[in-house]
Amino acid sequence: MSITETYEIKNEIGKGAFSVVYLAQNIKTGEKVAVKTIDKQQAKETQDDKRLKTEVAILKQVKHSNIVSLKDLYETSDKLFLVMELVTGGELFDKIVEKGQYTEKDASTIVKKILSAVQYLHGLNIAHRDLKPENLLLRDNDTDVLLSDFGLSKIIDEKTMLTTACGTPYYVAPEVLSASGYDKEVDLWSIGVITYLLLCGFPPFYGESLPEVFEQIMKAEYDFPDPYWTEITKDAKDFISKLLVVDAKKRLTAEQALVHPWIQSGGSDKILNIKPELEKYNSQRKLQSMSKIKK
């Protein structure tokens, strides 16, 4: 059965290096979905076909309320069609800027959902490896966050030690940069960076150049500057400091992070006005389109 027998393909809603995303509708049920159409030959030419196979294998395997779901899969000799859940809430960080203000408790709720998805992935021996704002989408409200984009994800086993330098500069863990081999703990480092950003609007590591940023990451050199962090609870700072740890084995696991007091209590109800900083950071990352270190 071809995809057009089940779905009516409508307008284009996104584009990638070798893929185009269309809005589509199930002919029988009327359900709206996103169809990612992949050119297999192009993927092969850009040596992304292996990565694509891994992404599809992972999407077929995962089912979690905080992960964008794969609903169907169709294939022809030259095209691959991934029928995905349609996510209409946009990027998490864009929504926060649009809303203008939210609380530490909201941030804690968001991080809890990210952790829940990551705990589930790690339980299946899957490392996401590219957790960043662009890959955090919203379903239909301000805290119903979903993980997306498994293009850099890997299924690992006890014999496998990941070594590929990949990810996005500001969120990448020190062990990825040192090329000494790494495991699923890289995702928890990225969650530490995302949490920091959610609470003040700017990243913990920044500099005039990427080498400068990497140097700070390698030493976990960051602080909680006033006045941005004056009102943030000790529990929130403790949570971040237990994730941004250079020694991956001393970093909290997803399970441990989920029972941390900040995740359990939710932090303060005080309004956080991070809009000016986050707006600046958002436009900067979009302008630069922060490139991958290496595919």
Written account of the structure:
- The protein has 295 residues and is of the alpha+beta class.
- It folds into 2 domains: 3-85, 2-Layer Sandwich (Phosphorylase Kinase, domain 1), CATH 3.30.200.20; 92-288, Transferase(Phosphotransferase), domain 1, CATH 1.10.510.10.
- It is 38% helix and 18% strand.
- It has 12 helices and 11 strands.
- The chain has a 5-stranded antiparallel β-sheet.
- It is globular.
- Mean pLDDT is 85; it is low at 158-167 and 289-295.
Order of helices and strands: HEEEHHEEHEHEEEEHHHHHHEH
Relevant CATH superfamily of the largest domain: Transferase(Phosphotransferase) domain 1
CATH class of the largest domain: Mainly Alpha
| Widest sheet, order of strands | 1-2-3-5-4
Instruction: Please report the total strand number as a whole number.
Output: 11
Strand residue content: 15-25%
Radius of gyration: 19 Å
Let me know the average pLDDT: 85
**Helix content class:** 25-40%
